[in-house]
Design a protein that fits this description.
By secondary structure, the protein is an alpha/beta fold. Helix content is 20%, strand content 27%. The strands form 2 sheets. An 8-stranded mixed β-sheet has the order 6-5-4-3-2-1-14-15, with no helix packed on it. Strands 7-8-9-10-11-12-13 form a 7-stranded mixed β-sheet, with helices on one face. It starts with a strand and ends with a strand.
């Protein structure tokens, strides 16, 4: 199973428009430190799953018929905005799996065009190609799912963004499931009060300590977290890293190391 982090940024990205903090200045000067809307691609044999659709160039990145499905975590604009252009394409409909949300985002689900929206139910697995996908409820301001994704060889990848902590039922599932790899929301530096919609640094590391996956990538990063990281150089466990745009990793081949 190959994981590609297509984007690792929170809403607004890095550099943030008009900001002159050290992280945003670095992003202007070095493309490697820019962060686009949070999304990932999971590939397993012929199966290709796009996790979230906030990138605005999906129609250029993915040829018609090249995606098995799109999995949406939720309907906030920075996770679905790329679909507004894609929907008016032609060809075979693209399955778009999402949590039940009666509001959705603007008229996207009422006028889906090429997109074939499918409502998922929490903890009810579906099979897409060679992968089994289980939706996991998260804690956010809109109905939001994380996804537990497993292939036939036993590689297990959990994608958990956007969330502030984990519901007990999701934590219980993941403890029993034991993920090989984990992509986890870590939007903010340490805060006096825990975040209500996104993890701060301490919340994220507590989740990692509880679940103990083989590898963890922190994602959905704000410019504030990048700036704090530049200033403090915080230590991380060897198995944890802050994801960057374009990073790839392979799970389930004996060693689970990023391919940067």
């Amino acid at each position: 199973m190959r994981i590609s982090f297509l984007g690792t940024g929170a809403a607004g990205g890095v550099p943030l428009y008009g900001c002159v903090c050290s992280a945003c200045q670095r992003g202007h000067l070095q493309a490697a430190h820019q962060r686009r809307p949070c999304s990932a691609l999971v590939e397993d044999g012929e199966t290709r799953l796009l996790l979230d659709a906030g990138l605005m160039d999906l129609h250029d990145r993915f040829a018609p018929g090249s995606l098995s499905a799109i999995l949406l975590t939720h309907f906030h604009p920075d996770h679905v905005q790329g679909l507004f252009h894609l929907r008016w394409g032609r060809g075979t409909p693209i399955p778009v799996c999402a949590p039940p949300d009666s509001e959705g985002c603007a008229d996207l689900t009422r006028h889906p065009g090429l997109l074939d929206f499918k409502r998922l139910s929490k903890f009810e697995p579906i099979v897409i190609g060679s992968l089994t996908v289980t939706p996991l409820p998260l804690i956010h301001s809109k109905p939001t799912f994380g996804y537990a994704i497993e292939n036939a060889q036993g590689a297990r990848f959990a994608y958990l963004t956007d969330t502030a902590g984990l519901p007990p039922s999701t934590e219980e599932f993941l403890l029993a499931w034991s993920p090989t790899g984990l992509a986890l929301d870590c939007s903010h530096p340490p805060r006096a009060q825990p975040g209500r919609n996104h993890n701060d640094w301490n919340q994220a590391l507590r989740i990692v300590h509880t679940l103990r996956p083989t590898r963890t990538w922190l994602t959905h990063i704000t410019h504030d977290l990048d700036c704090w990281q530049i200033e403090t150089q915080p230590a991380l466990p060897d198995s944890v890293s802050i994801a960057i745009d374009g990073e790839q990793a392979v799970l389930g081949q004996g060693t689970d190391w990023p391919l940067r």
